[in-house]
Amino acid sequence: MLKIVEAFSGIGSQVQALSNIKSEIEVAATIEWDINAVYAYDIIHNGAQDLTNFPEYEKPDAIKKLLALGVSTDGKSPATEMMLRTLSVDSLRRFLYAIERTKNLVDITRIHAEDLPKKIDLLTYSFPCQDLSVCGSWHGNMTGINKDANNRSGMLWEVERILKEYVSAKKKFPKFLLMENVSNILSRLHHDNFNKWKKTLEEMGYINQVYTLNAINFGIPQQRNRTFMLSVHCQDVLKRKRLLKFFQKNNLEKMVPLPMRPLADFLRTDYSNSVYLAEAEESNPFYTPSRQRIHEDNDMIFDGKNYAESIKTITTKQDRNPNSGLVVYKSKTDGKAPYRNLTPRECFLLMGFDESAFTRLMDHNIETKKGQRIYSREKTIKLAGNSIVVDVLEELFKQVEQIKQTILKSKLNEGEGD
Fold first, then answer.
1. How far apart are CA 328 and CA 325, in angstroms?
2. Which of 198, 213, 327, 343 is the one with CA 20 to 30 A from 161?
3. In sequence order, which residues have a C-beta less than 8 Å from that of residue 381 and are 6 or more positions away?
């Protein structure tokens, strides 16, 4: 049994990967303040909500409770009373229900070691990448993971704070940590700060293995490089030696690529299906001068007959330049572009989620305001772009299971081991 905490949990790619490889897990807690991701996580992994026995909060009380928890409506800044007041009381109740059902501690800046369950086996942390990304650097943002920057990527140091509190709280460190972020974290601009983080973990007794992995080598036709760090808490000298040998022998960067599934398996171009047709229409923009430039600059990943081998990285937006790739499309509406962007469904599939997960989310796309639902096309694509490719995580978690069984040989959640 792996007792896990997912920090910056998003839509739950971590728990999805663990479920896919049949790991026996208990999600002890999640940590996510973006209410859009929190609700999506709940629906995707727990199914339809049943509020029959859930408190009938009046709107002011629901707002007060959500503000006290520290939620965000955009993943960038804390929600305000004015923001929440515009939302329906039903949606506010459902957000609170999702927080409770996913054991969500919400705002990492308010969490302390004593708030976390005892004997955590695995802590995952995929902190925000905005201040680390190449795009951010292009726009003059050089702050990265500087401790004093007070930015979103600096949330990494909240993880450090919590781990250091483990000492004063006399709690055992999580046996495994798994970090994920953009590969620019290894660049010259950020590598000193990243090395400080690695050294901090080493001083706590962790052995770190850093991987930069491309989703295309794990069966998914998406060129998506991300950096991961698997950290294992191990203070026994012999076990540490065995662990280092394990990583040398089982380096995921040097593995033989897994067979890549054809892109046709992920694109939904059968427009005899009315749902796929409606989604295609919604992803077909008007042919403005900026869209003409997009058309010229980006790859056609399906030209009506042939599919490309792969796409570029799925980001939080598709109607942008550059983007992941274009699909030829002929609309009956005048002025539309001769292409469409990836649909939200396709983005979810290319991040390794089953189609049923996306369908379930759309089936419970609640109304937050009159005539407005929580997930627009743009918001749903953002959820996918902020996620982690499930298939890559599966291989990383297989290593966790191997290490647990062959090196540590401990019943982790019973506190045995080192």
1. 10
2. 213
3. 314, 316, 317, 318, 342, 344, 347
pTM given for the model: 0.93
Of the candidates 159, 167, 169, 164, which has an alpha carbon nearest to the alpha carbon of residue 125? 159
- Between the alpha carbon of residue 237 and those of residues 40, 153, 197, 241, the distances in Å are 43, 34, 22, 6
> Residue 412's pLDDT is what?
42
The pLDDT score that the predictor gives to residue 127 is: 75
Integer Cα distance of 192 and 186 in angstroms = 9
User: In this structure, what token pair is assigned to residue 17?
Assistant: 């990967």
Is the distance from CB of 194 to CB of 145 less than 8 angstroms? Answer: yes
CA dist., res. 307 & res. 46, Å (int): 35
Residue 189's pLDDT is what? 81
282 phi/psi in degrees, rounded to 5: -70, -25
Domains of the chain: 2-257+388-414 (3.40.50.150), 269-342 (no CATH)
pLDDT value for 146: 66
d(CA 404, CA 416) in angstroms, rounded, equals: 11
Per DSSP, 404 falls in state I
Beta strands, E only, 216-354: 225-233, 300-302, 326-328, 339-340
d(CA 317, CA 321): 9
For residue 225, the tally of other CB atoms under 10 A from its CB is 14
Q: List strand residue ranges (DSSP E) for 356-410, in order.
A: 367-369, 372-373
Residue 142: predicted pLDDT: 52
What are 103's two structure tokens? 């054991």
Cα-based angle 392, 375, 54 (whole degrees, multiple of 5): 95
Give the H or E element holding residue 380: helix 377-385
CA angle at 360 for the pair 127 and 70, rounded to the nearest 5°: 35
Nearest to 126 by CA among 165, 98, 104, 159: 159
In 3D space, the residue among 382, 353, 344, 375 whose CA is nearest the CA of residue 268 turns out to be: 344
List Cα–Cα distances, 202 to 110, 197, 234, 289, 417, in angstroms.
25, 9, 10, 53, 18
**Both tokens of residue 226?**
């991300």
Beta bridge pairs of residue 29: 5
Q: Which residues of the chain have pLDDT under 70?
A: 129-154, 410-418
Strand boundaries in 215-284, DSSP class E = 225-233
- Please report where in the chains the tokens 């030829």 appear, as a residue: 328
